[in-house]
TrEMBL record:
Residues 130-229 bind DNA. Keywords: DNA-binding, Phosphoprotein, Two-component regulatory system. This is Response regulator transcription factor. The modification 4-aspartylphosphate is found at D51. PANTHER family: PHOSPHATE REGULON TRANSCRIPTIONAL REGULATORY PROTEIN PHOB (PTHR48111:SF40), REGULATOR OF RPOS (PTHR48111). InterPro entries: CheY-like_superfamily (IPR011006), OmpR/PhoB-type_DNA-bd (IPR001867), Sig_transdc_resp-reg_receiver (IPR001789), WalR-like (IPR039420), WH-like_DNA-bd_sf (IPR036388). Residues 2-117 form the Response regulatory domain. It comes from the Bacteria. PROSITE patterns: OMPR_PHOB (PS51755), RESPONSE_REGULATORY (PS50110). The keyword Phosphoprotein applies. Residues 130-229 form the OmpR/PhoB-type domain. One of its GO terms (biological process) is regulation of DNA-templated transcription.
Length: 234
């Protein structure tokens, strides 16, 4: 796989490149946001490792451009010295898939890349045909607003269905409560975020999103929720 490394520090960039190549991937270094944009125009990459602070722009601006241009198809991991909880929350809220703190540790970076690639592969396993989304044992039919789990129909409210559809279409993606309110309820910050918690609890129960059934709907403290496939306990 081809990994883009957006890092203006040459020593840090070379370190990341060496780590990526040790994992069996190709690492391509871009020292500036401008060079990165030009590089992706010429040849796409499979994953982006990027610093938050750039010499010709901010990480949040570039991330917004990445999501606008490529959607969620390009996984993004921030590599940064900013470790404050508010900074981490901001990165994830803006659309980063994960982050690694400096100084960079090979074992941690390798584990996070592997986990992200695994989640992406699981998400790709979801098949959309004839308007239906099928992910493992769950089938959602948006036109009919129907849900089926293990061949059995499950009754969902409109918002429960929309929430389940969003999470299943974005396996492994961490959504904060505010983002879920905006995407599912189309509401702003004036709404109590406990509304999200209540609906998450309901779809967890109704769709059996538990490890015993091969699912994990995780509450990430201070950040939000992530749905992913796990090895079944049964």
């Amino acid at each position: 796989m081809r990994f883009a490394i957006l890092e203006d520090s040459r020593s840090q960039a070379l370190l990341l490149k060496a780590m990526v190549e040790e994992l069996g991937h190709e690492g391509v270094i871009f020292p500036t946001a401008h060079s990165f944009r030009d590089g992706l125009a010429a040849s796409r990459c499979d994953l982006l490792l990027m610093d938050w602070i750039l010499p010709d722009g901010s990480g949040d601006e570039l991330l917004a451009w990445v999501r606008e241009t490529f959607g969620w198809a390009l996984p993004v991991i921030f590599v940064t010295a900013r470790v404050a909880e508010s900074d981490v929350a901001a990165m994830l809220r803006l659309g980063a898939d994960d982050y690694v703190c400096k100084p960079i540790r090979y074992v941690e970076l390798a584990a996070r890349i592997e986990a992200l690639m695994r989640r992406r592969a699981m998400a790709d396993a979801g098949r959309i045909s004839a308007g239906r989304l099928t992910v493992e044992n769950i089938v959602l039919d948006p036109p009919a607003r129907s849900a089926v789990v293990d061949g059995q129909s499950v009754a969902l409210t409109a918002k429960e269905f929309d929430l389940a559809l969003l999470l299943l279409r974005n396996l492994g993606t961490l959504f904060n409560r505010q983002t879920l309110l905006e995407k599912v309820w189309e509401l702003g910050g004036e709404v109590d975020t406990r509304t999200v918690d209540t609906h998450v609890s309901r779809i967890r129960r109704k769709l059996a999103l538990e490890p015993t059934h091969g699912w994990q709907l995780t509450t990430v403290y201070g950040h939000g929720y992530r749905l992913e496939r796990v090895r079944s306990d049964t």
